[in-house]
Amino acid sequence: MGITDTREALNRAKEAGLDLVEVSPNAEPPVCRIMDFGKWLYEQKRKAKQNVKKQHTVTLKEIRLRPKIDDHDRQIKIDHAIKFLEKGHKVQFTMLFRGREMIYVDHGFEMMTEILETLDEVAKMEREPKKLGRRMTMIVTPR
Questions:
Q1: SS3 state at 118
Q2: Which of 26, 40, 85, 92 has the fewest CB neighbours in a 10 Å radius?
Q3: What CA–CA distance (Å, rounded) separates 72 from 115?
Q4: What's the mean pLDDT when you consider all of the chain?
Q5: What angle do CA 129, 133, 135 make, to 5 degrees?
Q6: CA separation (Å) from 114 to 8, 12, 16, 108?
Q7: Model-wide pTM > 0.85
Q8: Rounded to the nearest 10 degrees, what angle do helices 71-86 and 105-118 cross at?
Q9: Average pLDDT in the 47-69 region?
Q10: Cβ-based burial of 140 (10 A; exposed 0-12, middle 13-18, buried ≥19)
């Protein structure tokens, strides 16, 4: 059903109560379509909104520890990390050393490896434990 005259196309669109929309202006001859332009715009916006809803941005969650943390408190922090990992977030464990706690750096590395072993089923290591100044950090990502 090729319409070659612009006036005829406009008349047909008016009769149908729709709009004449230029689909491909660079084609020779330009391609137009008779449709409800407002409805089409609405559907495009809706599709864009749905796509944004479906996206999941991965965020970095931080869990702070101290070298002298109790086993039960550490387990609670690990449980929080598991919840974050199940939601698809990355988790950064940060161990802070203050004052004389700097002599417990080896204990800090041991604690980080224990945490990694505990999270082995749900997480993999992205960045191994690294000490920078008075902090030790390790990043894990969901499996």
A1: helix
A2: 26
A3: 13
A4: 88
A5: 45
A6: 77, 74, 72, 10
A7: no
A8: 50
A9: 86
A10: buried
